[in-house]
Amino acid sequence: MFRILTLAACLCWLATPAFADEGKKETDCTNHVDDDGDGMTDCADADCHDNAACKAGQGAENTDARCSDWLDNDGDGLVDCDDPDCEGVGIRVCKGSAQTEATANKAAANGTPATSVANGMTDDGIPLEALQAMGESTDFFELIGKFGDKDGERNDQVCSDGIDNDGDGKTDCNDFGCRFDPDVSVCRGSSGVRLGIISMVQGGKLSSTATPQGGTGVTTDTYSTQFSRLEANLLGPISLIQNSFFLLSTRLERTPRLTFAMFQMPIGNKGHFLNLNSGGGGLAAGLITTGAKNMFVEPAAYMYRAFEQANGAALEAYGPLTTGSTLTYRAFAAGGSGQTTGSVGGTYIKNNDTSYTYGAGVQLGINVIGIYNRFDTEFLYSAAPTQLAFLLGVKFDQRSAERYPAANLLAVYKWNRLYFKGEAYAKRDIDYSSNSYAYNARLGVLAIPKWLYLGADFGAFLSDPFQNVPASAAANLTKQLDEQQWRVGAHVYFWRNIGIMSLIYRDRRVGGTDTVAAIHEQEIFGNVTFRF
Which residues contact 31 (CB under 8 A, 6 or more apart)? Predict the structure, then answer.
C-alpha cells in the first residue's frame, strides 16, 4: 500500500505544471515566448493586460499571426479562431489538420505540404505578395482590385454562381471581393444557408406645403423617430443544385411580410442562368435592391412609379455574350393580375379590375472597364478600381389601365474616390398618346477613406398631357404629375462599412393642376444603418 501511495504521489507531482517564480513576469508581450514559464504566452498572460500591444481594436483579424495572438484585434468581442474573420482565404492556424480533398490531392501531386507557396502563389491561388500584404494591411479593402484581382465580384448573386465573373482567375469565395466585402454574405465561414439582418433607425422633420392654383400655401410639419427598416434576408445555395442561389427578403418593421423572392439556377457551365423571382423589378433594380446599398436610403420614386409596375412573378435568363463579359444579356417575361400589395403573392382587386397584366423585355450590358452588376452597392469605402459600364434595355408592358413600350439607360463610372451613376427612363402610352420621361444623376465622393462619404443627386419626372382622358378605372394615371427632386447626404462609417450614420436633406416639388394642389416637401433626417 505504501508503494502504491508513493507511486501516486510521484505521478501527481509529474503531472503538476511548473509555476513561474514568484515575482517573475512576462517581459515581452509580442515575442511568442512564455517568458515567465507560467504556461501563458504574450497577450494570453495577465501580465500583458495593460500592454499597448494587447489592446483590442487595433486592426483586422486577417492573418495567421493575428488569429493566434490571443488578442481581439478588431474589437468585435471575438478572439482569434472564435472570430469568423479567421476563416478567410490564406489563414491556416484555425483549420487544424483538416484540408479539402482538392488541396490534399494537389499537395500529393506536387510533393509539397498543403500550406506551401510555389511559383509565387499559395495553394489557395493567392499571390504571395498579397499574402504578405495581409500581414501589413489593417483592412482587406486595401487588397481588393490589386495583386491581380479585378473589382467585379462584390455581391451575393455573382459570388455564388461558380463563375469567374471578372476574369481575374479567382472564382466566387476565392475572390477578394467575395471573401472580404461585408456586402457578401454567402462567403462568410459556411457555404450553407445564411441569415442577414439590415436595420435602420431614422428620425427627422418633414415640412410639406400644399398650394392650390391661385391660392395660399399651407405648411404641415411632421416629426418622427422610428425603425424605418428591419430587413431579414435568408440566402444561400439551393439544395442539390450546384452554383445555385436563392434569396428570401422580408420586412419586419410593421407587419412581417415577404417582399422579394428569387431562385437562381445555372444553365450549362458557361455562366448562363435562369432566375425565377417575384416580379418586383423590370429594367431597373432600384425597387428590389436593399436600402443599405442606396446612398439616400430610398430610391428616387419618380424614376420607377410610372415605369416599373410590379407583377406576380417573373422569369429571367442572363449571362455573358462575349468572353470576359464585355457584353452581357438579360431577358425576362412577367405576369400578374390585380394590383400588387408589395408582398410576394399579395394582390388585390380595385374597381372590379381583374385584368391580366404582363410584360417582357431585354437588356444589354456593356462593360467598358471592369464588371458591373445591377445589385452592386453605391457606397465607396476605400479607393475603388476604375469601372465604366452601361445597361441599355427595352420592354413592353400590358397593364390593366395602359399599354406602353419603355426604354431604360443606365451608366456607372467609378474612379478612385469618385462614383457617378446616371439613369434615364422613357415610355410611350399607346392608349393615351402620351410620352413620359424621367432622369436621375447622382454623385458620390469619398472625402475621407473609411470615414466620410458625401453624395448628391438630382432628377425629375416629365409627362405630356393625355390626348385621351383616362376612364375612372385608370384614375391612378392622373397622379403622374411633373416633379423634380434633389438630395444631399453625408455618411460616416462608424464600424467598418457595415455601420453607417447618415444625414440627408431632400427637396421635392410636385406640379399641380386645376384640381390638385402643388406640393413642396423639405425633409431632413438622420439615419443609422447596421447590417450583420
Answer: 42
Q: Residue 487 forms beta bridges with which residues?
A: 457, 506
Phi-psi region of 28 (alpha: psi -120 to 50; beta: other; left: phi over 0): beta
Q: Please list the helix, strand and coil fractions of the chain in percent, rounded to the nearest 5, in that order.
A: 15, 40, 45
So what's the pLDDT on residue 113?
A: 38
Helix (H/G/I), strand (E/B), else coil: 316: strand
Nearest in space to 419 (alpha carbons), one of 376, 374, 379, 458 = 379
Q: What is the pLDDT of residue 139?
A: 60
Q: Name the residue ranges covered by the structural domains of the chain.
A: 194-531
Dist CA 504 CA 277 (whole Å): 32
Neighbouring CB atoms inside 10 A of 127's CB total 19
**What does the alpha-carbon distance between residue 125 and residue 116 come to, in Å, rounded to a whole number?**
11
Q: What is the pLDDT of residue 106?
A: 39
Give the homologous superfamily in CATH for domain 194-531: Porin (2.40.160.10)
**71 in Cβ contact with 63 (< 8 Å):** no
pLDDT digits (tens, 9 = 90+) for 440-462: 999 999 999 999 999 999 999 99
Whether residue 179 has pLDDT greater than 90: no
Q: Using alpha carbons only, what angle is made at residue 384 by residues 383 and 387, rounded to the nearest 5 degrees?
A: 155
Contacts of 257 (CB under 8 A, 6+ apart): 250, 251, 342, 343, 344, 346
The length of the chain, given as a count of residues: 532
Write out the three cell numbers for 375: 445589385
Whole-number mean pLDDT of the chain?
Answer: 81
Residue with cell 405648411: 219
pLDDT(11) > 50: no
Residue whose cell numbers read 392654383: 213
Q: Per-residue confidence at 15, pLDDT binned at 50, 70, 90? A: very low
Cα–Cα distance for residue pair 425/266, rounded to 1 Å: 30
Instruction: Calculate the alpha carbon distances from 445 to 298, 420, 452, 455 in Å.
Output: 19, 9, 9, 6
% of the chain surpassing 90 pLDDT = 39
Give the Å distances, CA to CA, from 32 to 27, 57, 70, 177, 253: 11, 20, 11, 32, 49
Q: How distant, in Å, are the alpha carbons of 67, 88, 114 from that of 95?
A: 11, 10, 12
Contact 296, 455 (CB under 8 A): yes
Owner of C-alpha cell 431632400: 506
Dihedral sign computed on CA atoms, order 24, 28, 34, 39: positive
85 or 118, higher pLDDT: 85
Cα 507 from Cα 484, distance rounded (Å): 8
- Which DSSP category does 526 fall into? E
Distance CA 174, CA 152 (A): 13
pLDDT grade for 297, boundaries at 50, 70 and 90: very high
The Cα 380–Cα 370 span in angstroms is 16
Burial class of residue 83, CB neighbours in 10 A (0-12, 13-18, 19+) = buried
